[in-house]
Automatic annotation (TrEMBL):
InterPro entries, A to Z: Fe-S_Maturation_MIP18 (IPR052339), FSCA_dom_sf (IPR034904), MIP18-like (IPR002744)
Protein name: Metal-sulfur cluster assembly factor
Superkingdom in the source lineage: Bacteria
Domain MIP18 family-like: 6-79
Listed PANTHER family: FE-S PROTEIN MATURATION AUXILIARY FACTOR YITW
Any Pfam family: FeS_assembly_P
Length: 102
């Protein structure tokens, strides 16, 4: 996948806001990887801030909706993983400032 497409994908994912925290999933450091295969299937490997997050389904739906407008992406699979575990260290400087953690 070229850098422009990867940037577009991450830009779309920045529109997905964690409903409990109010910051997007990219700046929270929840997105670990994105991979696009030759058929246009995008696999988003991500985590959530807590196991058993009651809004996991909502976030997955929002991820899929955010990526629908990217022509190269024909299908999206969201793979929720717990390893490596998420921590505040994965957050961007922007997210830390927004949450008063600096």
């Amino acid at each position: 996948m070229n850098e422009d497409l990867k940037e577009n994908i991450y830009g779309a994912l920045e529109q997905v806001i964690d409903p409990e925290i109010g910051i997007d999933i990219v700046n929270l450091g929840l997105v670990y990887d994105v991979e696009l295969d030759d058929e246009g299937k995008l696999t988003v490997t991500m985590t959530l801030t807590a196991m058993g997050c009651p809004l996991a389904g909502v976030i997955v739906d929002q991820v899929q909706a955010a990526l629908r407008d990217i022509p190269e992406v024909k299908d999206t699979e969201v793979n929720i993983v717990w390893n490596p575990p998420w921590s505040k260290d994965r957050m961007s400087r922007y997210a830390k400032i927004a949450l008063g953690l600096t």
